[in-house]
Design goal:
alpha+beta; Immunoglobulin-like; globular; DUF5110 domain-containing protein (chains A, B); Glyco_hydro_31_C (chains A, B); 17 helices; Glyco_hydro_31_N_dom (chains A, B); Gal_mutarotase_sf_dom (chains A, B); nine-stranded parallel sheet; hydrolase (chains A, B); homodimer
Chain lengths: 716, 716
């Protein structure tokens, strides 16, 4: 074990000969002596770590996982998994995010940079013991110290590098469905949004658009005029966002397949033949994303669709999901033939069930193929968690070769820390369950903590059938997540905003329009979080240090100014809300409503009808809103509205930039610095415009600590 | 459609020629004219009912189902289903309980007495519409009117007949596990409870005890001295409770099978041969519980185990569950052979999956066998929901032939209203999920409303692996349900009270001991609910009429005196509680703790540590406690403790009876009438003992409205 110094607060412990994941961009090169801290570490055939937790210690992080913000009491496995049934006992989802923080008698963070399976038993088998098992002997482990949760997260986000930033339009509403079968159908959907005045910035294409599920292909029959379709939709600000799957169909004459074979770009089996698995297209090879040449090759393939006008993609099935392998199905048939000879009893019956049900995503398949990395042949299982990550990287690198200064929308299903620099993620194939609003809500801060700022869940749920009230409540949550996509599976009930009755449609329309109204705020806060290496969506305990703020899991801070308290149960017309300080409650029916109330620090029951949701503006903070529009491109920011809750003085910096280029990385942006102070009968508003050419006027509404409402206009 | 008068408040509408389910004991025979009320009814090939709900209408009931106490917003199917994965989208569980109440602009109850599939779309497809589909044209429908929820429930419970009453020991703690493989293991478990001083009244035997899963058999190898085992355990107050499955193994020489064949006691296929299905024993026949002779035959078979000392049973797999049928498996193999010839693609791959996964509980199998009822041959599908009910009835009738005046413990998995007169139910194969504490909590009042007073969930969850905190919290809830059984599936983590660390063990021990301390209260309240045709576990909205009481779903009333507010989320150390009137909060660490606090009407945040739970004593009500003991037989009731929250005057009647016989049906019981009044500095306690020979002394603790604590002793 070698210890490296990164900063005063961060050490890296290198054990054995770790595989380079590139999760961390500042690994430190100064070797210095020192023992492993906090956890007791045992290195044998595997690495085991143990930490004795105190009664009140809390554990945060681990990104995409089941359960709460505080991860104590359960066991989690980092192993990217395609499992669409997110029941509470699941230990793995699609992402593998090995960063966590313990807050308590010791407060520190730890990142296990290991690309295969890691198990985190957070007081599950033994309540007081945090046990980590690393399935290997070669790893980097980072320990991050700091005075507070906030500082530790900040330090961690600094060493893993800044978050991916999508184009600004990706903060608009995105409609998706597995089952939009033709270009006409897509256009009809788009037109329905326009007719009904429901804002829309993108429509995702699922598998349906492809020719026989072939990556980068287009069904000639169903999407014949794809290029002009893109053009027509983009005139209305609507971008088409196609899916790209990991597996490449094996088919003579299919260019991608043939190029892949010629270039040796596919992962191989033990005989050095391209590994064969079956997924949506039938039999496929998997591009060897861990191989630099293969990655570059695949990345450049996005160009075909981009040349047709596409500006965003989602990468799917990249855990990679495997329906079955050639070896797997042969063995299954052999087993079934044996079983057929028997009079089935309980054991043999369950064996029949298992034989078929274990075909999918079988670990033996993951162990039977290899990647040709710079350091030689590596078994897939040993790098399983960075496969999807490197598909994201492939796409991102590909985009750079096409237009280095253009932002493309990109989000992925599988991920690992490091992938956050190349794309966003969605939280995978959830269900239309009320429990999954809860999961969505609780997962967001954990994802942010692990670097995935541009993220969100399939709004209204992917699997199962939606009920109308769930649709309303889920939209009321998702308007606060950077990725705001409504997506559903083939065969499930429609869940577009207009799939319900007119009252529901109106409520969801107003909700989406509110989202568009707060884009100036969301974008500003998101970009500041990216640039400052901070979280965008935070649990209360990041900003408030009182006991209860550390325990609350059903309220979130969105950026620096606001707190939300979603309704996540059916038939509820109100809920309890904890306010760790005085806050201004805004009950929103639509972005123009003016229903303000000062809520004192403490416990509150807040009535919330089905057609409204609550926004809490923190003390001495302000929220910035513009006017909604049909799409982000139509947003007129000449006048912005400020709602400020000011006991004495509030400051806000409204960040903005061009929203389309990477110039922000060079520090090219604008800001408006706003200071509002209130003192008895006087108020003072000071606004300094640093380069924002759009905004001409601020309509300021100040609610003072005593509840006085002051309206003022500032011309810039 | 013929309308019958039952009472002023209750009408029966007879449509076509309904199958007699015997759900209702007072069907009324006075035919009188009148239209169908409230719902619009259409009778065609099926019956469809529609009701326009107002915005604030609430819908309660439907017994064993997913979702909340208010059933609005989802769709439910009454079709007894063996499906152990209770995810939120499931429409059917094990029971079919077709009674509901709408409370709102109209307030009325309805019972659809139809033994096959009924679908209740409670504003799912159209938010304002309650649509009921009855898959047939012959049914009885009851409409129950009344001034209040409480009155409607009461009227309904009166016409369906009084609840089954178990022996009093069945209010003790019951330990269960699929996987107690031998008599020795069972005795070890029992001894461990005794050693550790954890109360115990019963141990359930799952499949393991049988010889090759044969009903009424005993494994000679593993349970060789069953009779003496029973005797030894019963000396310590511990009863063995074996499982009985619906299916009878086909095996030459097996007496039950041979008798069944000889007597024509099995359900038959279309060729009048006994229908063959496969379940745990391999191939089985299903006793024709809808045939009176078969029912009597099967019922008498319980005698063998009873002669060995058994006093309680649980009936399982009686939906009936079917792993596969002969025809089903043959067809599956044929399909697989066809698929084998193909290069699998997506469609054929999913067909392979479906082929195997659709073997279980396939509706085609339910449609392919018949019952020989008094009214001729009836297809199973048409009476599916009363099959398990009639197994319960078979057992109960059998018990009567053995000892008519003895109470046996009996609970079933499948059920239909009517079965509540013959046995209790447990809520089936739930999981060790926090979501299933919530489900347990919300289901209890719905079950009570449908007549199933003796009921409870598998505490700590059947499937999946428990975490220690979930074990604590679930026990803290289950101590208030009449059936309090901890049960788990083969292969899951142990979840007996001593399966965790010593601190957890101590907490759970104190929790179970508290249960034993409140048995005098629970039994008294349970019996009064039975005798008065009332609910035992109620949602707040039954007793309180304010708006929020109608909405609260995470607090329950247990009997007449107390309210509980369980903790049902991990890592929570407190929760919000709504008190619709002033209440006395008792924070319980153990039954001797004295941590009382008056909570004013309104909203409260209550700190609750992991080793405590809350009990709220209602205003002018009292709670009665005794001393815990190792088993109910050791409970010494010479001295009882009363905790009374008295603003002015509280009355309580403590019911008791012998707890073992059916004499209570003849009105043979005892009571102690207690009246406590408080007036400034005076208090007055009046206790009249009507035949209770055990209780000699009442230790009374009065907490007055002003928080004054008065202790007094009353000798009886």
């Amino acid at each position: 074990m070698r210890k490296y110094y990164i900063t005063e607060k961060i050490s890296r412990y290198e054990i054995g000969n770790p595989i380079e994941t590139e999760a961390v961009i500042n690994k430190g090169d100064k070797n210095y002596p020192g023992d492993f801290k906090y956890f007791n570490i045992e290195i044998g055939n595997e690495i085991n770590l143990n930490y004795k937790m105190n009664k009140d210690d809390k554990v945060y992080g681990l990104g995409q996982n089941m359960r709460g913000i505080n991860k104590r009491g359960y066991i989690y496995e980092s192993f990217c998994s395609d499992d669409p049934c997110h029941t509470p006992e699941k230990k793995s989802l699609y992402g593998a995010h090995n960063f966590f923080i313990i807050e308590g008698s010791n407060t520190f963070g730890m990142f296990i940079d290991f690309p295969s399976k890691v198990t985190f038993d957070v007081g599950y088998n033994v309540r007081s013991n945090f046990h980590i098992n690393i399935e290997g002997t070669d790893t980097n482990i980072y320990i991050i110290e700091g005075e507070s949760l906030k500082e530790i997260v900040h330090e961690f986000l600094k060493i893993i590098g800044k978050s991916y930033v999508p184009p600004k339009w990706a903060f608009g509403y995105i409609q998706s469905r597995w089952g939009y079968k033709t270009g006409n159908e897509v256009e009809e959907i788009a037109n329905k949004f326009i007719e009904k005045g429901i804002p829309l910035d993108g429509i995702c294409l699922d598998l349906d658009y492809m020719d026989d599920y072939k990556d980068f292909s287009l069904s000639e029959e169903r999407f014949s005029d794809f290029s002009s379709l893109n053009k027509r939709l983009k005139e209305n600000g609507i971008k088409i966002i196609p899916i790209i799957d990991a597996g490449v169909k094996i088919e003579e004459g299919y260019d991608i397949y043939e190029e892949g074979i010629r270039g040796n770009y596919f992962a191989v089996d033990k005989n050095n033949n391209p590994f064969v698995a079956a997924v949506w297209p039938g039999k496929v090879h998997f591009p060897d994303f861990l191989n630099k040449d293969a990655r570059l090759w695949f990345g450049r393939k996005y160009k075909g669709l981009i040349d047709n006008g596409v500006e965003g993609f989602w990468n799917d099935m990249n855990e990679p999901a495997i329906f079955y392998s050639e070896g797997g199905i042969e063995e299954a048939y052999r087993n079934i033939d044996e079983l057929k000879k028997l009079e089935l009893n309980v054991d043999s019956f369950f064996k029949l069930m298992d034989t078929v049900n274990n075909l999918k995503n079988n670990v033996n398949d993951y162990k039977s193929f290899y990647h040709k990395t710079e350091n030689g042949l590596v078994n897939h299982y040993d790098v399983h968690n960075i496969y999807g990550y490197n598909m994201t990287k492939a796409a991102s690198e590909g985009f750079d070769t096409i237009d280095e200064n253009k932002r493309f929308l990109l989000f992925s299903r599988a991920s690992y820390i490091g992938a956050h620099r190349y794309g966003g993620i969605w939280t995978g194939d959830n269900s239309s369950w009320w429990e999954h609003i809860v999961l969505n809500m609780k997962m967001m801060p954990s994802l942010n903590m692990c670097g995935f700022l541009y993220s969100g869940a399939d709004t209204c749920g992917f699997g199962s059938n939606i009920d109308p009230e769930l649709a309303i409540r889920w939209n009321q949550l998702s308007i606060f997540t950077p990725l705001y996509r409504n997506h559903s599976a083939l065969g499930t009930k429609d869940q577009e905003p207009f799939a319900f009755d007119l009252e529901v449609e109106k409520i969801i329309k107003n909700t989406i329009r509110f989202r568009y109204a707060i884009i100036p705020y969301l974008y500003s806060e998101f970009m500041k979080a990216v640039n400052n290496s901070d979280m965008f969506i935070k649990q209360l305990g990041i900003e408030y240090q009182d006991k209860l703020s550390k325990e609350v899991e059903d309220q979130l801070l969105i950026g620096d100014s606001i707190m939300i308290a979603p309704i996540y149960e059916p038939n509820k017309r109100g809920r309890y809300v904890y306010t760790p300080e005085d806050m201004l409650l805004w009950k929103v029916k639509d972005h123009t409503s003016k229903d303000f109330e000062i809520i004192k620090k403490g416990h509150n029951y807040i009535d919330i009808d089905i057609n409204e949701f609550s926004v809490f503006i923190r003390k001495n903070k302000m929220l910035v809103l513009g006017e909604p529009a049909q799409s982000t491109k139509d947003i007129n920011s000449e006048t912005l509205n400020i709602i400020a809750f000011v006991e004495n003085e509030a400051e806000y910096t409204l960040y903005d930039d061009d929203g389309i280029s990477n110039d922000y990385k060079k520090g090219i942006n604008s800001s408006i610095d706003i200071t509002i102070s209130v003192d008895r009968d006087k108020h003072n508003i000071n606004a300094v415009n640093k380069g924002n050419l759009e905004v001409k006027r601020l309509n300021v509404t100040i609610i003072t600590g005593e509840g006085k409402i002051i309206s003022d206009v500032v011309n810039l």
